[in-house]
Amino acid sequence: MTDLDDLRAELDEFAQPEKKKGHSPREDRIIAGFEEIQRFVEQNGHVPQHGEDKNIFERLYAVRLDRLRAKEECRTLLTPLDHQGLLSGPEIIRTEPVESMDDDELLAELEGSAGSADLTDLRNVRSRAEIRAAEEVANREQCEDFERFQPLFKQVESDIKASIRQTRPFGRDASIKEGEFFVLGGQIVYVAERGEDFRASGGHPDARLRVIYSNGTESNLLLRSLQRALYKDDAGRRITDSDAGPLFSETWEEDDIESGTIYVLRSLSKHPFIVEHRELVHKIGVTRGKIETRITNAAHDATYLLAEVEVVASYKLAGVNRTKLEALFHRIFAPAQIDITIQDRFGHPVKPREWFLVPLHVIDEAVQHVCDGTITNVVYDPKTAQLVEG
User: Fold this and answer.
1) S-S: 112 plus which of 98, 121, 238, 290, CB 3.0-4.6 Å?
2) Model confidence, pTM
3) Whether residue 183 sits in one domain with residue 88
4) CA-to-CA distance for 77 and 68, rounded, in angstroms?
5) What is the pLDDT of residues 357-385, one digit of tens each?
6) Helix (H, G, I), strand (E, B) or coil at 201
7) Given a cut of 70, is residue 14 above it in pLDDT?
């Protein structure tokens, strides 16, 4: 009897199922997320890759695998299940930097969102960088005092067309200062204010910016966020300052001429406005040839108000960048540009843009500023009919 009892006890102990160590809900979710990556590899024959051209789920799995490889806790949990060698396999090809995540962010990446068990929820298909970019756009708001900045945008656009400013790829100089202009997402961006510098969580210097966009919106971006956006935008550009560069130099550029002439013309038109203000209405230009040749057909050219002209002043200069110099004169005297419409010889209305209501002695003064190199420091004030610092 004793032998039978001992045998029963021995059999009962042998038949007792081994107790499995249970996983926490968090660990179950991590395992489930990893199993989805394993199924992807089985179906496609390669580890998931980053890239804008990849399937949205592949991009999600690539981000997820990055996170699992990076966390020791996850590697310890998943290594017994990793029959494909994914945790120690070849590095995933990335087209954008992968940043560290804390536990909550990792769970959000694996779960989709708080309370969601659907690991293929479409809310998870974007990278963190894409999410930040979308948030930055969403955080833009209407600029209530845009009328203050609108003239600046117009001036910058005009300066770019006149070659007074240039656009250069962002990257050689990644600095961002208050008062600078950039091109981002096809819009001109103005850094209106820059707050005090501080150290970000990674130890990098950063600052809060007030950024105004040419479409009338604004946002409070971090400096590093703007830098990142400009780096990622293939068309991102820095707009140079309004300094036109050297008008005189020892080396010649494509638009430089060995000797040039600044000319000032007065119109002999019988248009009522011209007749009334004839002593003040002038056209300013620069030519490499003879002035007489340039104005031969003035009476048939709407640029010259379809009338004969007389040369009232001319100035010989050497080593002049013709395009930049002419654009400078037009910018300086822009506040005095006349608004007049004439009919061309075909009866079509024409608005000549290169005539200004400026006394001749002020033009002479502007030429002196060219000679001493201070021309970029002045603007014309039509109220006082004087050049003032601007």
Assistant:
1) 121
2) 0.39
3) no
4) 10
5) 999 999 989 888 877 777 777 889 989 99
6) coil
7) no
